[in-house]
Design brief:
It is a single chain. Helices cover 0% and strands 36% of the residues. With 421 residues, it is mainly β. The strands form nine sheets. Strands 5, 7, 8, 10, 11 and 12 form a six-stranded mixed sheet that branches. 52% of the residues are buried.
Length: 421
């Protein structure tokens, strides 16, 4: 399974699955001939999320095309590379980052490489470490313990309080305030706890947070409730990502085509995005979840050829490097046009998204921008209608697309989609 992050109107989608079945159908970006990538002016520079603290082993990057090659740089030297299936991902680094390094990223599609990120993120010193919070409810047989109230770039350990640190049942590296940690099956009436550690491999700078309050492991419902695939949007024919709702944290979710399992993974929140083989037309698609026992399957849905129309946010000021787009679907190709010419693109997801304009593109007062999205597969290519037009200009009226951030953080974090306590 891949990883993505996305926000909803009221609550937030953690949108992360930890793989148990690894689908392998992607062989590069699914680009349509109507919207080719001819040069860097057509290709969005990726967005690196901040803050990043010293000793970081992963960084979060967004705003790129699914299956593009994303390369991360520190002071201009390559420190990581991956080809994520989603339009945002945590990128593993080849080494720990050092104080004051400037972090940027590019994406490469075919022979074309984008400009580097418009806004480098400078590696900072760690603030005082917060006390982690294990959230929300965890269940027996569950295989994920979500931890919140974290500081970016720390190492996180999770333990069963029957056997506290230094023993651990799961661990991971943070890029933000929230981290789902994979564990063995949890035990009823036990409790789990977590702590975070800064620079664990650099003794002169190592710091350890207070341990979280223990959270009791609840009895799993028998059977669990059936999850669902809709609302808000019906799957599109050929889609390779589906939004799943009504999950219990740590359950194993399985997607079925005509009652046959095709993909699965462990849920990290009540709403997740799941990688699947391209959805065929005329096929009953269902989902079920399992803790200690399986749920009933969800009501079946069939894919549609109707792609939702995206919404372009405004106002957009002259000289802006970014545009915001809402109402996209996971895995779709999102294209922003100026006078019919592609100037930005990225993978779709749940919630409001940021996309950078291509190399050499300068937005000017009076420019008319629109957005669309499409899904391409062997079953055909399906396009949305064009979005609302937005005329560039700070005083122009428009749809204001909002973004949720952690209350402890300031500034714009285009990839930040986890609202922590």
């Amino acid at each position: 399974m891949g990883l993505s992050r996305a926000s909803s109107f009221v609550r937030l989608y953690a949108a992360i699955f930890i793989a148990s079945i690894g689908p392998c159908w992607a062989d590069g970006p699914d680009l349509d001939e109507r919207y080719p990538i001819k040069g860097p002016a057509n290709l969005s520079p990726p967005i690196v999320a901040g803050p990043i603290n010293e000793c970081a082993l992963f960084v979060h990057v967004s705003g790129f095309i699914p299956d593009a090659t994303v390369t991360v740089f520190a002071n201009g030297a390559q420190v990581g590379k991956d080809a994520p299936k989603h339009g945002s991902a945590d990128i593993k680094l080849d080494r720990a980052l050092v104080l004051d390094e400037a972090i940027t990223a590019v994406q490469t599609v075919g022979s074309v490489t984008s400009d580097k990120s418009y806004d480098p993120v400078k590696v900072g010193a760690f603030p005082a470490l917060t006390q982690p919070v294990v959230v929300p409810e965890v269940y027996e047989c569950g295989r994920v313990t979500p931890v919140g109230n974290l500081v970016a770039s720390t190492h996180v350990d999770v333990w069963d309080t029957v056997s506290p640190p230094p023993d651990s049942i799961g661990a991971g590296e943070t890029t933000g305030a929230f981290l789902p940690v994979a564990t063995p099956p949890l035990v009823r009436d036990h409790a789990v706890g977590a702590r975070q550690v800064a620079c664990p491999a650099l003794s002169a700078k190592t710091a350890v947070s207070p341990s979280s309050a223990p959270l009791g492991v609840k009895a799993a419902p028998n059977p669990p409730p059936a999850p669902s695939l809709t609302p808000p949007q019906q799957p599109v024919i050929g889609a390779k990502q589906l939004a799943v709702h009504g999950l219990l944290v740590g359950s194993h979710a399985q997607i079925d085509y005509n009652a046959s399992g095709v993909a699965g993974g462990f849920s990290t929140a009540s709403d997740n995005v799941m990688d699947v083989p391209p959805v065929p037309p005329g096929t009953d698609v269902t989902v079920e979840q399992t803790l200690c026992s399986p749920s009933p399957p969800s009501p079946p849905v069939t894919a549609t050829d109707k792609v939702p129309t995206p919404m372009l946010g405004g106002p957009i000021c002259a000289g802006s490097h970014y545009v915001t787009v809402d109402n996209t679907i996971p895995g779709a190709m999102v294209v922003v046009l100026r006078g019919g010419v592609q100037i930005a693109n990225r993978g779709g997801d749940l919630g409001a998204l940021w996309a950078g304009v291509g190399a050499g593109v300068t937005l000017q007062d009076g420019d008319s921008l629109t957005a669309l999205q499409y899904v391409k597969s062997t079953f055909g290519t399906f396009y949305s209608a064009a979005s609302n037009p937005v005329i560039v200009g700070c005083l122009q009226a428009g749809n204001v697309v909002t973004q949720h951030n952690d209350n402890q953080r300031t500034g714009v974090y285009a990839a930040e989609t986890i609202l922590t306590p």
